[in-house]
Amino acid sequence: MRQALPLALAALLLSGCASHKPEDLNGTWINQEAIDAAVKGGSLRQALNEHGPVFEWKLDVANQRASFSNGFEAGDGQFSANEKQWQANFQGGWTDQLVLDGDKLKTTDQSGAEQTFERSKQPGNTPLGGSFEKALYQAYLGGEWKIVEGEGKGGVVRFADNGSVTGLPGPDRYALCLAGDCANMGGSNDSLWLERNQRGAPFIFKRDDDKLEIFRAVNQAQPDEIPQLAAGARQWVLEKD
Question: Tens digit of pLDDT for each residue in 127-172?
């Protein structure tokens, strides 16, 4: 298969079916549309659901590797090409078609669902999924937030793109729940995890433009059921300076 790839790529180039070189696909591609939708306001969960499920691709043409992240789990497959298109192949026979359109990567899965990705500006050694997460954290929570209600009122909070938070009384780490069990426990609510010294708890939050409300999470499920989190007492209200 490794010997077949260069022949396939050469045939693709000679056929004139693509205006890009195969190596143009190399690198990390993130779902900027999902980030832009989240920043516009409203529900983070809704924005990610509407523009998912994949948030990041890593492509390595030379080693025939194609990996993706959906914010909860990762897939590692094989990259291949024929005379018409590039393709990522995964266990179970699942495939995604890959096309470069200008400076954007467009993908189509077997169900016909299409997504668009932009090249990441993060360093190439960033772990899979981390480039999207950093870009989202910076765009969604970046800047300075003033505590206008709750403990530490008057203080300034900064959420860093590496998951650290300063100025919020108590926690020094945070993580937005993007997908999987973490997000599902919140139902239709947006949720995040706050911790200090590897001990923490989930919280429900609502972001409306430059206002961020953080609530205690209340588990409404029975002890033998999957947790279902709802907003409890409001812990903090932050406003962006």
Answer: 999 999 999 999 999 999 999 999 999 999 999 999 999 999 999 9
End residue of a domain, out of 138, 158, 182: 138
Q: Can you tell me which residue has the tokens 């961020």?
A: 212
CA pair distance 199, 214, nearest whole angstrom: 18
Q: What is the DSSP letter of 102?
A: T
- CA gap 154, 146 in Å, rounded: 6
CA distance 149 to 241: 14
User: Which residues constitute the domain of residue 210?
Assistant: 142-240
Are both 235 and 153 inside the same structural domain?
Answer: yes
The dihedrals phi and psi of 9, each to the nearest 5 degrees, come to: -65, -40
Round the average pLDDT of the chain to a whole number and report it: 89
pTM of the model: 0.88
Distance CA 85, CA 104 (A): 15
Adjacent-strand bridge partners of 174: 194
The DSSP 8-state label assigned to residue 36 in this structure reads: H
Q: Return the beta strands (E) in the chain as ranges.
A: 27-30, 56-60, 65-69, 74-81, 86-89, 95-101, 104-109, 114-119, 144-149, 156-159, 165-166, 173-176, 190-196, 199-208, 211-219, 229-240
Q: How confident is the model at residue 20 (pLDDT cuts 50, 70, 90)?
A: low
Q: Give the phi and the psi of residue 2 in degrees, each rounded to 5.
A: -65, -30
Amino acid at 13: L
